[in-house]
Design a protein that fits this description.
7 helices; elongated; mainly alpha; 130 residues
């Protein structure tokens, strides 16, 4: 056992070493990834770090990672059908189980023109990358 080193100092050193190892591991792994996979791995690593440090609710994280869909989907508004598949609609409906997304679909319906514009712009960007 080390003499003269307080528990706070040891925790700080441990935290610093963990942070550096995490960063160096990410850099090493990133080099071997295809460009299209780098963002996915970075986001997943960030989620894992936040989960480990109790900064993110594991249930909410599972919604995002597993892509949960609602079993019962109410009537989909025509304004949303213009750009949203049924699968996308059911996924958004499932997100409403999380309090912060409680009125997601009603807000999307109210601002359908803006959502459609955003969706179409993203679809164009994906086509250009291919």
């Amino acid at each position: 056992r080390s003499r003269g080193l307080g528990d706070g100092y040891k925790r700080q050193v441990h935290g610093d070493i963990t942070e550096e190892l995490t960063y160096q591991s990410f850099i090493f792994i990133r080099r071997g990834l295809f460009e299209k996979d780098r963002l996915l791995v970075a986001v997943r690593l960030c989620f894992r770090i936040q989960e480990k440090n109790n900064l993110i609710d594991p249930d909410k994280l599972n919604y995002l990672i597993l892509g949960k869909q609602s079993a019962d989907s109410p009537h989909q508004a025509e304004s949303l059908k213009q750009f949203m598949t049924e699968s996308m609609f059911r996924a958004c409906k499932a997100l409403e189980e999380i309090p912060i997304f409680l009125s997601l679909l009603s807000q999307m319906e109210a601002e359908a023109v803006h959502w459609k514009k955003w969706y179409m712009e993203e679809a164009k960007k994906k086509k250009k990358k291919k």
